[in-house]
Amino acid sequence: MSEQLSEYRRKRDASKTPEPAGRSGRRSGNHEPMFVVQRHDARRLHYDFRLERNGALASRAVPKGVPLEPGQQHLAVHVEDHPLDYATFEGEIPAGEYGAGTVEIWDRGTYETLEEKKNGGLTVRLHGERLNGTWALVPAHLSGDEKNWLILRKRDDASEPLRAAPATYKPMLATLTDDVPRGAGWEFEVKWDGYRAVATVAQSETVLTSRNGNDLTARFGNVAKEVAKAAKTPDCVLDGEVCALDDSGRSSFSAMQQGKAGTPIVYYAF
Ligand code: MN
């Protein structure tokens, strides 16, 4: 039997949170065990990695997201078992309640257990929409705390060949024409007047790079922080423009250069 769900229930007030009440019980019939990864924008953004085991969801909180590159490993903090019906839960946990914030499903699917060690270590093959391949959960006891496991991506057939260097992306530039193109397949948007910046989000940290390859991250630290939160995924690359808005909400290059305190700075991703 898995850990009881009493810890799950103890932490939650069923009259205040929309989360599943926490009934225990296995699913009937033959089926592959499921996994789910939920993006949890709580006091601290993290990803909850859950595996169906013994009639419950064995759960770990992964602050940097599930590692994608073979050999990469991330902290995975063991948390209380969750009920099976938590696997379909998405929604808002109200302020003041345990885990207050937004829960979204980032990936789900089935998995196979490839290896289970005496110390609890697990190697699994995930069959999800985003996650396909082999991961290991290791009871690493980081900082001497037995809650602190590691999740690591293993090399396997499904893993991408290692790149010599991370791919770099350049902003997509506009082409000057005499006429406005018409017809299906065209969209129109305002020309934003600010700093063009490619936002590279890796492990929930953003680096902003200008057209000329200069690092703008320190200059627009708040933008970098918010882009990582808004991206809804721990790893991606966005092309966009950092703009300062004037009093009427228009992007203003002079407002940007003056850098007046209180001027809203925004990032428009194309
Ligand atoms: Mn969580």
Oligomeric state of the chains? single chain
Distance between the termini: 50 Å
Overall outline: elongated
Query: Any idea what the radius of gyration is?
Result: 22 Å
Q: Looking across the biggest beta sheet, what order are the strands in?
A: 1-2-3-4-9-8-7-6
Describe the structure.
- This protein is mainly beta and 270 residues long.
- The protein contains 3 helices and 13 strands.
- The protein has helices at 6-10, 221-230, 253-258, and strands at 34-41, 45-53, 56-62, 73-82, 91-93, 101-116, 122-128, 132-138, 148-153, 195-202, 205-210, 236-244, 265-269.
- The strands form 2 sheets. An 8-stranded antiparallel barrel has the order 1-2-3-4-9-8-7-6. Strands 11-10-12-13 form a 4-stranded antiparallel β-sheet.
- A hairpin with a 3-residue loop joins β1 and β2 (45-53).
- The longest helix has 10 residues, at 221-230.
- It is elongated, with a radius of gyration of 22 Å.
- The termini are far apart.
- The chain binds manganese (II) ion.
- Manganese (II) ion binds at residues 40, 42, 46, 48, 61, 99.
